[in-house]
Amino acid sequence: MRRWLAFLLLAALPLLAARPQRVVSQAVGTDELLLALADPGQIAALSHIGRDARFSAAAGEAQRFPALKDSDAESVLRFRPDLVLAASFTRPETLALLRRTGVRLVVLDRFDTLEDVYASLRILGRELGQEARAEALIAQCRGRVQALTDRLKGVRPVRVLTAGAYPFTAGSGTTFQDLCDHAGALNVAAEAGLKGHAPTPSEKLLTWNAEVLVISGDRPDGSDTRARLAEIPHYRVLPAFKAGRFVVLPGALMSSVSHRRIDAYEMLARALHPERFR
Predict the structure, then answer these.
(1) Which of 35, 92, 111, 225 matches a 20 to 30 Å C-alpha distance to 13?
(2) Sign, Cα dihedral of 63, 43, 250, 200
């Protein structure tokens, strides 16, 4: 028995040695994925805003780990990483500097759909030596999504528009569209032909017939965002605005590029279709 145990230990040593032991995550999205898959001892540092609940859905967990001083290459390299995780929206000069050092760098560049998230989880699972953990998380996510799909079967999609103080609206090919696709919502901006994040066509908003405005803000009730929207004429005249038909989601979930977005699916679905959750 002892010989057999020794053999198993020796066989596992190459695998353990191959696993990165000083992983640095440079972006909030990679923080959330890393926290879900890695052993705590593999994490050297997380992004500089990963502890801020306004931006990170895993801010509480992130408190247990060191944080980067900034998002630049110097801050990353200070932790002597053997693997760096970044996103394609990271500043190009930062990515160039990191590549120049020769450190192992994984840049994730697909964020729009849940299938993109699954692809990212598999990439990180291989990099971390945590393939089984990645597949288990994907299976768990698929189960939650299927349960929500079953609950919403047959509902009439509610016509929604995401609104913010900045003059941009989320159309098709965005994380907001993905959110709508899973929560029994119809994104009126996408229906009107907008793609990506595009300038809000103020003169057309009334014709879109949005029933509900989906917003986020620093305050749980969204009062800060609603106050800013009240100062913008083309939002102020919308029937949904006048009637106070808002759904407020945490900003960290609205913009999530990780599996945490499923929380937003469920929150929006509950708000739009409460009868299905009684």
Answers:
(1) 35
(2) positive
Residue 175 · residue 255 · CB < 8 Å: yes
Question: How far from 135 is each of 34, 49, 122, 261, CA to CA, in Å?
Answer: 14, 28, 7, 17
Picking from 77, 78, 73, 28, the residue whose alpha carbon sits closest to that of residue 49 is 28
Whether the predicted pLDDT of 152 surpasses 90: yes
Distance CA 58, CA 239 (A): 36
Q: What is the mean pLDDT of the chain?
A: 91
Where do the domains of the chain lie?
Answer: 18-143, 154-271
Q: Which fold has domain 18-143?
A: Rossmann fold (3.40.50)
Which residue, chain included where needed, has tokens 């879109």?
Answer: 208
The secondary structure element, H or E, covering residue 182 is helix 175-182
The token duo for 31 is: 């923080």
The amino acid at 168? F
Is 45 exposed, middle or buried, given 0-12, 13-18 or 19+ CB atoms closer than 10 A? buried
